[in-house]
Amino acid sequence: MKKLIAAVGTACLLGSCGVANAAASPFTDVPQDSWAYDAVAQLAADGIVEGYGDGTFKGKRAITRFEMAQITAKAMAKNPQGADKALVEKLQAEFSEELKNLGVRVAELERNADKLRFDGFFRLRQEHFGKDNNFANTSKAYVELYTHAQVNDNWTVESKEKITTNMKNDQGNTGLVELHNAYGYGKYKNFTVKVGKFDTVDGYAYTHEDPMRGVQVTLGTKLKAKIAGGRIGNPNNKFDADVVSGIFTYPIAKRTNLYAGYYYLKPWRLGANAFQCKNVAKEDYSLGNIGFDTLLGKNFRFIALYSRSNAESTVPVNRNGFLIELDYKRMMVQNPGSFMLMLRHLRVNDTTAISSRYEAYCQGRAYGTEIGGCYAPIKNVELGAKYFFGKDEVTKKTKTFVRTEAKYFF
């Protein structure tokens, strides 16, 4: 049997000369009474590993741990099943260090590596506000790093770390590092669950586009419902509220989807009669919206959304809000040369939205039009620009806003 093992080991070495040449020092012999000889003999008998092609033997000699690892690597490549698989796994465990030195990725190590993944992007952004916006112009760089950690077949832990620095600062050492969100994500046959602090994009980003702290359950196939409860807020004006919400989508045609959303909010209070930095003057209130999106031909998408709340405002605003959007083409960062053009007309304020993508244009009270576009010049790189022009519906002052940015995905 020792002759058979020696033959198998020599054959494996000859078949892996690149690895053998890398070995520069002698290796310890495997003891002659080791169970590994019997294991390899059984694998050879089952055709998992082989000696020389002519079936001859090349004499009796000792087998080193290096050679035994070579045999194990060859057996691993055959992907054996049943009892042979158990033998190979036992050999893997015994000679794992040698396999590692040979550059062989053991299946268990691969599984562990796959449990943690990273992706994200780096972004450079310039923003210019008109003189009546009362905002300072900005020049910032961001890194958003997403981590995905596998817990089991159904659950992962997801997080987003956001690093921001002010590019207008010559020292370049001031900025902000924050754990933007972190949550457990459970995926089952008929529903998904998020628990923790997670991103939300509701109402085509008109209603809310910031994290929620709580629980969210999404269920359904054709009629989809997203039910959530927790705490939601607006970082632009430090507004926070406890909330219960329900979002529903339904495809009424192959290219058309209906959308409806409802929120019950109870804002936090700073004092007896003062709510926290938001123009809402009611103990609790409801907000609802309804809309649809549809594809027009091959290249166009149209979106319409109507929003209304029963909130009382400290300033005279219209409690009816809307978003009308027309998109041309679709930009995909994986496809160089792809692009997208957007045209939007909207009215949004503190009563018609919670933390809208569009509120930042003029202190939570925007009424006007936005044009923009994005382009992928090379793979995984996006260039974008947008321009908003309109009025503050309270002061009636003209509001303008320009943003340019470049994003590098990894």
From TrEMBL:
<feature type="signal peptide">
    <location>
        <begin position="1"/>
        <end position="22"/>
    </location>
</feature>
<keyword id="KW-0732">Signal</keyword>
<dbReference type="Pfam" id="PF00395">
    <property type="entry name" value="SLH"/>
</dbReference>
<dbReference type="InterPro" id="IPR051465">
    <property type="entry name" value="Cell_Envelope_Struct_Comp"/>
</dbReference>
<feature type="domain" description="SLH">
    <location>
        <begin position="23"/>
        <end position="86"/>
    </location>
</feature>
<protein>
    <submittedName>
        <fullName>S-layer homology domain-containing protein</fullName>
    </submittedName>
</protein>
<keyword id="KW-0175">Coiled coil</keyword>
<dbReference type="InterPro" id="IPR038636">
    <property type="entry name" value="Wzi_sf"/>
</dbReference>
<feature type="coiled-coil region">
    <location>
        <begin position="92"/>
        <end position="119"/>
    </location>
</feature>
<dbReference type="InterPro" id="IPR001119">
    <property type="entry name" value="SLH_dom"/>
</dbReference>
